[in-house]
Design brief:
12 strands; single chain; 39% helix; D-Maltodextrin-Binding Protein, domain 2; globular; 7-stranded mixed sheet
């Protein structure tokens, strides 16, 4: 089944009837808790993109490694570049193990950049990280409609020749586009209001924009044909190091000209190893977190899972939840000086 068939707003992996019997005051152990339950994976963006593809593929296999094989459904919750879903998971979602989320990999970065501001009602370091499917090195893709796809040549063109379509100023697309602009010296016009990578792809085809930063693994899985045909070309990466697939493509850290700017780009690129990581809300019982982590770890080495990801050209680079937790803690504890300089660069108050 091709990726284009992922269209539904709610993707159910099986159908079940919820009938739960509990003894008041006696929490169920993880081994018996998931009987007749439904697990919901909240996705911070709309259907049709890489978040959808990876989550559907994982859900089909992960359920097999949870006691009593609870059904798993996907719930899409786009809004404010992932902020809506992060706030929901932190404040509203049940904390009993029946809710997981695939939040934006920039959730910790955005939180740190907006510390103290109203509207940011979550702490990324307090989520329980279940595991990561793949890192999220962002490839800065230039579309064929541009007069050149060489950064040096484009800098000689009139300002605004390169146009990005992004969801909003809090979105990773905006952050990545602004980072490339500053690191490379290229004047980029950044448009907002384009929710989801699928819509942004269409905008490029329509000529509304000609540049889009997005996860390299997602580009390969969703638009591998575009890459092969030369419709899009990667010119930089938001990553801490070069990707094995793209040994000649520099990172934004490399493009930065001064030590101070390199610190800023390192802070921004720090979200890449967070990647497509699944979480549960803070307060989820430890034994259920452990059970979900175990199921995740088994699912990602399942031969059927690996065969399916290979067939769909999905890159896989898994990491355990504890590793992701340390990465997020490091982002949240970034020194104020670096954070303030980054905010100034991004135009945040």
């Amino acid at each position: 089944m091709g990726f284009k068939r992922f269209r539904s707003l709610i993707a159910a992996i099986g159908i079940g009837i919820i009938t739960v019997v509990t003894i008041p005051g006696q929490p169920l152990k993880a081994a018996t808790f998931f009987k007749d339950k439904v697990i919901t994976i909240v996705i911070a963006f709309g259907p049709g993109g890489g978040y959808h593809l990876y989550s559907t593929t994982l859900a089909k296999r992960m359920k097999q490694y949870i006691p009593d094989m609870p059904h798993i459904i996907l719930q899409f919750m786009p809004g404010a570049g992932g902020l809506k879903a992060a706030n929901y998971m932190y404040k509203v979602a049940p904390k009993d193990g029946t809710y997981m989320a695939l939040l934006s990999q920039t959730a910790a970065l955005v939180q740190r950049l907006n510390t103290g501001k109203t509207g940011y009602r979550y702490d990324a370091s307090k989520f329980n990280y279940i595991g990561r499917l793949v890192s999220m090195d962002a490839a800065h893709m230039l579309y064929k409609s541009l007069p050149s796809r060489d950064l040096g040549a484009l800098k000689k063109r009139k300002p605004g020749t390169v146009i990005a379509c992004t969801a909003g100023k809090a979105a990773q697309g905006y952050i990545n586009a602004r980072a490339l602009s500053v690191a490379s010296g290229l004047d980029i016009k950044i448009l907002t209001g384009y929710q989801g990578s699928a819509r942004q792809n269409i905008a490029m085809q329509r000529g509304e924009c000609n540049y889009q930063p997005g996860a390299w693994n997602s580009w390969k899985a969703r638009r591998g044909d575009w890459i092969k045909k030369g419709l899009i070309k990667p010119v930089a990466l938001t990553a801490l190091k070069r990707h094995p697939d793209l040994p000649n493509v520099p990172t934004i850290v490399e493009l930065a000209k001064t030590p101070e700017m390199k610190k800023i780009m390192t802070f921004i690129a720090g979200y890449a190893p967070v990647g497509r990581a699944y979480t549960t809300p803070p307060g989820t019982p430890a034994d259920r977190v452990a059970m979900l982590r175990s199921a995740f770890d088994k699912a990602v080495v399942d031969k059927n899972f690996l065969a399916e990801t290979k067939k769909r050209n999905m890159l896989i680079g898994t990491a355990k939840g504890a590793y992701v937790q340390k990465i997020v803690d490091g982002i949240v504890s970034t020194p104020d000086g670096v954070v303030n300089a980054t905010k100034k660069m991004l135009g945040y108050k």
